[in-house]
Amino acid sequence: RRHASWRRVLHTMRGRRGLLLEFGCGIAPVSTWVSPRKPGWHYTLEDLDSAPWRYALTRISGRSPLARDVPGPYGVIVVLDVFEHLADSEGAARALVARLSPGGYLHWNAVESAAAAYLNLATWEQMQAMREYVDRALVPVWDREGYRVSQKRED
Mind listing the pLDDT tens digit for each residue in 23-35? Predict the structure, then answer.
């Protein structure tokens, strides 16, 4: 799934320049993979202050521009394997959609089964509310189990 999703992220990075936000990035695998292919883009990495996040910053800063503290709007936002770890997944989704530029893409996934909910901070109901919000707020572009791409309407 990972390399296929990274290619899909790259496909949605339209133009020579733009802004990409990798939210809940860990060691920034997506930004690290796409940055040599899109060196004119700026990359923002957001996660908890941790050793993996600090390592991610060093991985990206040497390869391409790192946009720190850029509020957006972002042409591409990547939120993979993150929503289930947030106590307010719907609130996070609303905040991320607000940072997306018109026509921009949100790459995301979420736990699909209530049986897997024991691993997460968000309850099954919160995850359902988050999915419903994203589906109402954005246009589904790619909807496969374990990986979705949604696009903000051009206003």
Answer: 999 999 999 999 9
